[in-house]
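Q: Hi! First time asking for a complex rather than a single chain. Here are the components, and I think there are four in total. Is that enough to go on?
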Amino acid sequence: MRVGIVGGTGYGAVELMRFLTNHQAVDKIYLYSQSKQGTYISDVYPHLASIINVAMEELTVDHVVKHVDVLFFATPPAVSYQWIPALLETDVKIIDLSGDFRLDDPAVYEAWYKKTTASRDYLKQAVYGLADVYPDKIKQAQLIANPGCYPTATLLGLLPIIDKSFIDVDSIIVDGKTGVSGAGRSLSQGVHYAEMNENMRAYAVGSHKHTPEIERFLAEKTEKSIFINFTPHIVPMTRGILVTMYVNLTAAISRDTVQTLYESFYKERAFVRVKENHSLPETKHVYGSNYCDLHITVDQRTNRLIIVSVIDNLVKGASGQAIQNMNLLYGLNETEGLNLSPLYP
Amino acid sequence: MRVGIVGGTGYGAVELMRFLTNHQAVDKIYLYSQSKQGTYISDVYPHLASIINVAMEELTVDHVVKHVDVLFFATPPAVSYQWIPALLETDVKIIDLSGDFRLDDPAVYEAWYKKTTASRDYLKQAVYGLADVYPDKIKQAQLIANPGCYPTATLLGLLPIIDKSFIDVDSIIVDGKTGVSGAGRSLSQGVHYAEMNENMRAYAVGSHKHTPEIERFLAEKTEKSIFINFTPHIVPMTRGILVTMYVNLTAAISRDTVQTLYESFYKERAFVRVKENHSLPETKHVYGSNYCDLHITVDQRTNRLIIVSVIDNLVKGASGQAIQNMNLLYGLNETEGLNLSPLYP
Amino acid sequence: MRVGIVGGTGYGAVELMRFLTNHQAVDKIYLYSQSKQGTYISDVYPHLASIINVAMEELTVDHVVKHVDVLFFATPPAVSYQWIPALLETDVKIIDLSGDFRLDDPAVYEAWYKKTTASRDYLKQAVYGLADVYPDKIKQAQLIANPGCYPTATLLGLLPIIDKSFIDVDSIIVDGKTGVSGAGRSLSQGVHYAEMNENMRAYAVGSHKHTPEIERFLAEKTEKSIFINFTPHIVPMTRGILVTMYVNLTAAISRDTVQTLYESFYKERAFVRVKENHSLPETKHVYGSNYCDLHITVDQRTNRLIIVSVIDNLVKGASGQAIQNMNLLYGLNETEGLNLSPLYP
Amino acid sequence: MRVGIVGGTGYGAVELMRFLTNHQAVDKIYLYSQSKQGTYISDVYPHLASIINVAMEELTVDHVVKHVDVLFFATPPAVSYQWIPALLETDVKIIDLSGDFRLDDPAVYEAWYKKTTASRDYLKQAVYGLADVYPDKIKQAQLIANPGCYPTATLLGLLPIIDKSFIDVDSIIVDGKTGVSGAGRSLSQGVHYAEMNENMRAYAVGSHKHTPEIERFLAEKTEKSIFINFTPHIVPMTRGILVTMYVNLTAAISRDTVQTLYESFYKERAFVRVKENHSLPETKHVYGSNYCDLHITVDQRTNRLIIVSVIDNLVKGASGQAIQNMNLLYGLNETEGLNLSPLYP
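A: Yes, that's all I need. Here is the structure of the assembled complex.
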């Protein structure tokens, strides 16, 4: 398999390289970058010296068609949508790690992203790549919209129960906490080491662009509009997302019942681990790996369900899931290149 | 003023010393410790060398009565309650940083703390030392139950609106995030550096002992039982608490109205800063200081209020507030010894 | 006393404000900034809200002469030297935290800083503000060149023995480790949180601009040129410098003798603590404070002296020492505004 | 291949499991622990859930002989030496990650470790497993003494030039900086998160037990006793060692000459990367990987060589190198199971 990556100098791209250089079915990697053409990737990322010895090239549809079987976009918002319509005319498979194709309504995209994306017709051609929930659809796709980091952790936590009659879908509150790598490689005062270390803050309260992505796929299953509160926070660590979800119960239900429901929902899935009651998940338990660890509490005092979900934002929340999607697309074992133990400690 | 501190080797005590050695009205500091009698504090805490040159002594009521005007308990649960009844017979003023006197029902204490505390009669003699809300009661007290760290951040965030008709008191969700110093000085695997660094987790989901403390003082103002969800999380930093509170609105209300309400509630208070909409609080903005920074969002989409509150858990959440209480008790300027700028960066 | 600060938005300036707002003799603070005129400091640094309510102004000699008694330059290299000649014509006292006046030879400055500074005549008018070594000279100065962070930690470690016959001055190796705040507030990839966290590196090996500053003041005491190796490293923490110094012994000498020599050298100095053999210094022991902690090892196997020195780079290594110099200049108690306990933990 | 690990709950063991579960030639893993017999490893390390499902067993020579081809000791000092003599009577291959067999003189071991090890006869049977320097000897061994973390980084930095006439072997100074995982999993106040975060310190100055190990293998090549200064420091990060080495030059020599010498010394070695002059190594460049990155500076001013070496202390400094040794022992490709990209960021 010949692979191309657009956006070669971002964290998404560099994490794709980590998995692709460890992947049995990948023969060749091309890197595309508009700003760094001609630069060797190991000059940008010295840790890759002697591992991947590739210079970045100009992205053109012609080059892709000639050399690449599957193309990853690891680009900022509003880039991939300019290329994908032309690529859909070819046989190239596309996995887009950006948000451009995750929503089906361009107006909603523009409202939250403050940018433009493709038209509704193109958006409809994308399959949402939540690999542990939609593997069958993904296998058929040409274009995969790889989920956002928060939506991955949140949807894996909520989809097993979102259509159950014992919950109140209007009560959902999602409190997210992320490590700093989620903010990407671009410099800003807020993630300057001296000011981010020993610091935490909420951001984008009520306005984070992952909100409509979560709402869309919850609503798809309930066939009813859903509005959630999603509040992200940034905490002083490089990798890891922990999402705490609160849902009102409308009926008495035991923790065992809910646990069984989750275990059954994920029983075929290699990368979702439903934890026992005594064992709360920690982001370090999934560090550098493609796992999502889930935990359920039924709070009898308040009649609420509390779900905790942890992932590595750069792996299951981005590049690892993208590789999993590539494996599904090509009929490979879903875990190929990904069955690495988390790094601990 | 002559001051005594029981529990001389914990973080609460050492932080008290930082403020007391910078306090104009304090002449003398005595340290009491059962496990470290005879040891100089600077042998336990080398940073105090040449600053405080005191050996720890055995705690006895006699010694206290003879030498001390105000006595701080910076002890684990279920210690102070064994001493305070006898001390209440004397003229000594007492500020208890432990949880022993924060609840008024010993049965509730035992249910959440899994330990014993004083009888209801003694509990009733304590004034709850939330200094920015109850300064007048505090001035009259002999025994002050200094609030917990999470309750301080949470109650300062909720008390201005808890009795308003536009909120649903049954909908309150409190998602707390703390730095590691909140876990104290005792060693445990969970706060071992190599495993806590680059890691976060929820803990005590549905069972944290600060829950009934928060509920008590919310209920006191509404005259109606209140049950909240409180979920604490630990994040890899030493100091700082950020609490995110979610409350359903029962009526349309503008952010400006709520903002004005908060500003008016705290307009005489030196240590509470209500932030503008564009300026989300960060724990580093209060680092090492006695400030609480508050921020309000009204989310029109979901009809919820989101309140963010930050404090330094060891200062406003413990020792700083205790000093503020001491100042109130002695009719001093509330800010004496405490008007230090936060440490930034 | 009326104080002015040039470079109002850097870490040096903000740390000066922390101490000046806690200083009894300071009535008024002016902030000068070329890039942020008209901006309130609390809009740049929200932690200062309600503490210092000052807008930044344009720097002119006229304004300074009219309003300011002592002026701090907390500016990047090659700024202060453009202003100071004119200011030396006035009665204003100047404390320059930049490196512009620390060397006495403009050619050496240019060789290491790759920038221009004042002429030799002006450089000679500056007194080097190593407050714990040259207090008497400092009291007489109009212009103080406040020492660099590494030179402060290093010179305090070496000056007590540099002129002793039992050491080989040609053997000195200085291995420095700094927290990230030493790199300042300007953004760069190297101190981007996601890449600096869980990372350390050496930098400017053999070429750091603090090298000639250290060499100058060692040589001044020995009256012989001295060349040292100085290798700085950056480690993932915000505040703190630890310097490890290696010096060959030319004669057998006991640790006790050396210890006594250091204790005697610093016996009148409030801010230098010479540690016992069993008690190695830690940067956290001086966190946020103006202390320098020193430790001596005599290694009999290799016949070398190993000196460890720790400071807070922003306090003793910059703004704290600058305040100490201001106190000396004005005949105040040297510790005024500075006698705060380190923040621990 | 059937593998056994003694010391199943330490960081060395858990890091071995990360590599062994990703190793093509390994069929079966046994874990031995005296304190945790019967416990499943995923109950100690939840990150291993669904990855390795093994309970810890009692260590007996019989069990090992029956089930295991190669046995790793990842134990504290003075454990492995009690078992290895009996195991040397069998066909089992042994890789000892502890220090027990790294020195050839039991008296030197006792002087530095303050513990007992095997007799000189047994010590002589061990081959020192510095895999990038002694691959041929290692291939023949039954017992491999896997090097310490600091000695690995230091010896890889010094062995290429230790026997050259242009250096002064009596001038060597080694300044080491380590992340906290090097201190292991046992709890202690010094590595309690709240006190280790935002902190650094030197430790074991002049007395660290890795000193004689470094000196032994330097001396072996020069055939002359060598005494070095080795000063370790601990810095607030989990993984990574950076060692800075200072060596006096006795003759004028260019950086290019030294660079060529290093490149030639390591030209066949997959895991040692000699960096260009402009590219200083960072510990994050080798994070989680088996690489050692080296950098050379020739300081003309002081006539000294400065060598910087970085490794991941748990990988190249322990378990990764142990796997590399296992590969060498079994005639496998040296990189099998280890050719993973460093984790970045």
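A: The mean pLDDT of chain A is 97. Let me know if you'd like any chain examined more closely.
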